Amino acid sequence: MSDEPITVPMPADGETPSLDLDDVDFFFDDELVEFDPHLPDDADDEGASASRERTRAGRSQQERRRDLPPEQRISELIESMNAQGKVLLRTIAFCEGPRTVEEVRAFIADQQQSAFSVFDGASITQMLARDGALERVDEDGVPMSSQPNEPERVTIDGMEFYRVTSPKPSYWRATAAGLAVVALDSPEGRLRAQMDKDADYDHVYRRILELCAEEGGSTPAALGEAVDDDPILEEPRRYAGYFIEKLERCAALEWSDGAWRTTELGLSYLRSE
Amino acid sequence: MSTHDASPVAAPADVEAEGQVGPEELAALCESRAATYALVSRLYRSEADQELLDELCAMLYPISTGNPSVDAGYRMLAFYLSNRWDNTLLELRVDYMRTFIGSGRSTFDAAYPNESVYTSPKRLVMQDSRDEVMAIYRSLGVSQAPTYRESEDHIAVELELCQILCQRCAEALHAGEQAQALRLLETHRNFLQDHLGAWVPIMTSDMLKFSQTDFYRGLAYLTDGFLETEGELFAELFGDEEAEEGLEEEPQADTAQP
């Protein structure tokens, strides 16, 4: 085992502990005499009650989420990941056939070249597996969950032991639910829905898309300068960042080489109406 | 720790079978117990890393020690490790966080590994229990390494103290210092009764609620079972005067062995 957290000055030969514990005058809070940690705390303390309630509520939410159909969990996960949502969708599509763990990590790293995320490939695959979009399979496509590996039993000097064994290599594969969510995903539909919802701001969206369609794209600062003073953005107060985020989530804008650039989808919207 | 010669748990059967405990037998038992304390302490100290994972995979896990909780713990660890894969370290880091740190939303959010949390009315750290164990450490001439940031009443630290007590006891027995060995055993028994035994069962119960890997759930069972066997050992050694005198006197010249 690695380094010890406690230094151990060893007593000299024949040396005995210098302190008889019966004589130690411990710090002692009289209140502890009344307190039995084994009894449930029925919360004379409102803070403790509220605290436990929050924990219970949090766990119930997790339990309820686990009861949702996988397609719904996957959709909610993708929605919650904002700009990384497209990375998740592309990862699911990438895993239509079994892929090694390393292949998937490399794919995600490549996708994140222009979309920084605090979630690395391992975390993203973990989330997708948790919500039923990916599963681990062996090289024959059999789910690993259906064939748990067992340790070996060995006998040494009459005593039986478990010896840890090595499992088969595993691969990531998209589930039917994951592929269904990918199939239903429609960036065009999302963009149209967003524009309908924010119809009053249509000219702001178009201005941003036009600027980002120019050679070299556009920077956040330049976009802010172009639209932040529009009177329609005064109440409620909005800035360019709000619209950039919406357009990115609808795949109408993407960040690359240090600038926001309009995608084909964004260009097709500009050409419409 | 990596071979069967250092099996983490030696069942106390040797003690019971003989009725008395020879110094060398007891020393060997203390060394074995120290190894188990070291293992369990390390698993609580921090998240598993690749080095620890490799060591754990190289170990042998007793199937039947005589304590069902210990057996369950070792079985869960062995099965979990036999199903490890590329993301195992990530899973264990996440589960360590989930089990012992929680999300910070409440004081009931995790199986906090500090004695003060379970022995203070408001479930806070750095309370009186910490002061008590610090006094015990000082009395034994040990102190926490400055590089280790956890509180002195963290379970890893308390378990490591027990490891030290076992090691010192073994050394005293090997050196023929039976009075010293007896004092160390008494200190250990008291520490188990007054501290570890008073709060760890609550923590391990919480671990089973929060942990989602068999690694940390197995650790909960292993911890419970091991502390049970420790309590049984001390009851055997100190339970009554006959058991207390069960430690053999050093053989005198021309006297037969008991």
What would you call the structural class of chain A? mainly alpha
Got a strand count of chain B?
2
Assign an overall shape of chain A. Answer: elongated
Instruction: Give the biggest sheet of chain B.
Output: none
Structural class of chain B: mainly alpha
Encode the helix/strand succession of chain B as letters: HHHEHHHHEHHHH
Helix content of chain A: 40-55%
- Subunit arrangement of the protein: heterodimer
Strand order of the largest sheet of chain A: 2-6-3
Figure out the total of helices of chain B.
11
> Please, what is the average pLDDT of chain A?
81
Task: For the record, give the distance between the C-alpha atoms at the N and C termini of chain A, rounded to a whole number.
Answer: 69 Å
Q: Indicate the radius of gyration of chain A in whole angstroms.
A: 29 Å
Contiguous uncertain segments of 5+ residues of chain B: 1-18, 241-258
Poorly predicted spans of chain A: 1-37
Describe the model:
The complex is a heterodimer of chains A (273) and B (258). By secondary structure, chain A is mainly alpha-helical. Chain A has twelve helices and eight strands. In chain A, the strands form three sheets. Chain A has a three-stranded antiparallel sheet with strand order 2-6-3. In chain A, strands 4-5 form a two-stranded antiparallel ribbon. In chain A, strand 4 (152-156) and strand 5 (159-163) form a beta hairpin. The interface between A and B is large, with 64 and 79 residues.
